[in-house]
Amino acid sequence: MRLRSLTVQAIGPFAGRHTVDFDALGTSGLFLLEGPTGAGKSTLIDAVVFALYGKVAGADASEERLRSAYAPDDVESVVELVFETAAGVHRVRRTPAYQRAKRRGAGTTTAQASVKAWRLPADVDPAAGPDVLDTVGTLLGARLDEVGAEMQRVVGLDRTQFVQTIVLPQGEFARFLRANPEDRRGLLQKIFGTQVYEQVQKQLAQMRREADRAVDAARADLAEAVAHLLGACALPDDDTVRVRGLLDEAVAGPQVADRVATVVDATTTDLARQADDAAVASASATAAWEGARDAHETARATAALVERRAVLRTGLARLDADAEQHASDAVRLVAARAAAAVRPVLTGADDASTAQEAARKALAAAVDAAPADLLPPGEPGPGWRDPVEAARSAAADDAARLERLVAVEARLDADRHEVRDLAAVLDDLRSEVALADAWLAARPAARAALVVRLEAARATAAQTGERAARLDAAERLVQDVEAHRAADAERTVAAAARDEAARAAHAAVRAEADLRSARVAGLAGELAAGLAPGGACPVCGGTEHPAPAAVPDDHVTDEQVDAAQAVREAAERVLAEAGATHAALVERVAGLAARTGGQDAAAAVAARDAARAALAEAQQADATATDLAAQTEAFDAATQARHVLRDEVDAQLRTAELALVARREQLDRAEAEVVEGRDGYPTVAARHAVLDARASLAAALLGALADERAAAEHAAARTAELRSVLAEHGFATADEAREAWSAPDALAALERQVQDVAAERARLLGGLAEPALATLAEDVGVDLDATGAVERAARAAADDLAGRARVTRERARAASAAAARVLAAARSLDEHAAHAAPVARMAALAAGTGGDNARALSLPTYVLARRFEDVVAAANDRLRVMSDGRYELVRSDAKEDVRSRTTGLSMRVVDHRTEQERDPRTLSGGETFYVSLCLALGMADVVTAEAGGIELGTLFVDEGFGALDPHVLDQVLVELGRLRAGGRVVGVVSHVEALKQAIADRVEVRPTRQGPSTLRVLAG
């Protein structure tokens, strides 16, 4: 992986937008990221890691620190990174989550994290602006989860592994060196892509388990098949034990199928021979039983014929005894059938006579009911028809002419009420028109007042924007005043801290000076303490020392002076930091004072409250204007609706006037017609009722005359028909036919009785005429008991032998099927055992548990150990130079501690001064730095050389150089410079002065007097 460019905005101490062109810095292969402590060097590395993984480099660091405290609320915090891998050129843009001020109102709200990723063309300029990059890139995703997964796939490392191999930040530089074998295993496996070997080991172990399960299952199937075979054979106990022993012996050895087949064939052959013998004996017994059965069946048939002949002869004798009664029943049946045919005609003649008598009585009643002037002279007869019909027609016509006047007379009262109601409605309509005219006359003045209120509300609402701007300005002023008060308080505290630091620094300076003076004063005694008799004085060169100075009790040592110097330097650093903090606060207080114009908090709050009230008034006026506009529209709509209603009522008034005149004329005409139609009766309805009753009585008399004549004609026809039918069926009189008639149920019973007797006689005679009975001898005899006993004995013998044959046959068949299953299971066991042997050997070899693997290394560990040896060898090439040949790394097969499960990935440090191996954790801080640096660079060499490995094209080293002495620092720089030949780029993060002199390409990070940091890229 190679970084191309990094852009940050409002991130950490960087308030503005800054871009680092790694392509330019990578030309020399080595660049320096330098600046004062806290200026933002590590922030740039955090930005790289955050862009790729959404988290910063430090394991304990929080993403909340990414938001710049110096950035305005309207400036978004953004990190953009362009990088290149084997998968191509990619660009990722992330924004962290942070708290920002609300755009309206007080308080804060959360700006949510976001991300976008693109794939860019290979020839793209990574330093181009976002406007250019957005047009040439292909968007890969805009969700946190999908972009996170895509970045890890493209880079090939997760965040922890990325930090341990590419970005080595403060606090995590030597983590890989000090890691336990299990952690090293995961990192190396991910970097070198050796997961396939672990998958091979797991696959072989799974194949071995499956092969073992298959062998066990085959062995169990064979045991179950043997048990089924022994059960199917049903051998005596001694034979069962013998056969089982032979089968167990065959299964225990090699070539199981062949050995088992010998035992199984011998057992099933004997059972088949026994089944054949039993089948022959069963067939002979069955033939004997079938002969005895046929003889017994013949005897039973003969006995049944003798019995049936006797029963038929008895029934025929009984019928002969009742022959006379049967003949009488047949004669009665013929007469009853003839009377049944005459019965309908006889009933019809009786009904016609009855109807004729009823018609005569109805005619007499109609004559009595009719008025005298309606009856013609003489007796009722056909001559009455025409006069009565003429009277009925005249009365009906007169009644029909009066029906309309009856209805007119009935409606007179309703018509009179309707005229009165129309007159009242006309008065109401005239009143409603007058009221509408008065209401409409008052509307223009009311609308004018409403319009005046609307225009005033709109004028106030038009000032909403201006008043909102004044409120925003007032709120900013309140915030600035509050910030000025807080900053002034912080400045006071910082001034006190600066003064206190100054006093402490002055005291430390004085203390160091006093100690140095005391040290100088006591040097004579210290030199005298080293004089020996006859020895030369290091000051004067004399050999005699008559009065050597004594060492005072409070003599100051070099260590005390050095300690005082360290205290003085620390106090001066604290003073410098306190002074910088105070100066920044003084500048901030001055800037806030200029922005507030010297206003106090009370005045600012009062101005803000007034602006807020004015804005609320304008907003309320806007709502009021909206409401008044709606009221005006409703007012105009109501006026228009009332105009329409008034016109409608006026039209109704004119229509009602015309309708009243017409209804009065209709009422006058109706009253005149009713008076004329009464013709001497009290009402038209009374006259109509009299005429209607006369027509009804005439019609009733005509109907009675017609009915009486029709009944007489029908009765004569039925009487003639009866005489003809009686003669046809042999009856002299109607009474004779009535006597011969029988009810339908009795006739049906008599008919069934006659038919049953005839059928029974025919059945008996037919039965005796059958050939079997006609040819049967009169003296035939049969012994069924003897033939039955012979048949039962033969059947018992046949059943016994058939059962034995069936048992032996089923046992032989079951044994044959079980034998086939045993042989199949034996062959399956041989096949699975042959397949499992090489699989088990390979699985044991890959797991490190087989005898062929003397070092007990698993396949993945063996592969990683070889790769790890390459890493250690590459690291030692640099370590020998950096340590002047003192240290060397070696891989160890031993476990580093009792809790470690992995062997082969342990590491020791050989100290060639003592020729002893050491734990890497015993190295000093400076030694740990350059040893782990060599290890990281060696890993980069090996990974880059690996085909298909992850290309570590860029490496960051954050801090640790301050722990090196000048000689080792020079050696480290020489090794870092050698990386240029391999095409890699190393970024050194440090503020060590020697590195500034040695590395020309750099990124300078500097804090400004206003607080935020800025950066400058120097390359080429």
UniProtKB/TrEMBL annotation:
Domain named Rad50/SbcC-type AAA: which ranges?
5-224
Query: SUPFAM superfamilies recorded for this chain?
Result: P-loop containing nucleoside triphosphate hydrolases (SSF52540)
Q: Which GO terms describe its molecular function?
A: ATP hydrolysis activity; exonuclease activity
Mention one GO biological process in which this protein takes part, according to its record.
double-strand break repair
Name of a matching Pfam family: AAA_23
Keywords assigned: Exonuclease, Hydrolase, Nuclease
The family note in this entry says: Belongs to the SMC family. SbcC subfamily.
Complex and partners: Heterodimer of SbcC and SbcD.
Q: Provide the protein name.
A: Nuclease SbcCD subunit C
What organism does the record attribute this protein to? Cellulomonas oligotrophica
Q: What phylogenetic lineage does the species belong to? A: Bacteria, Bacillati, Actinomycetota, Actinomycetes, Micrococcales
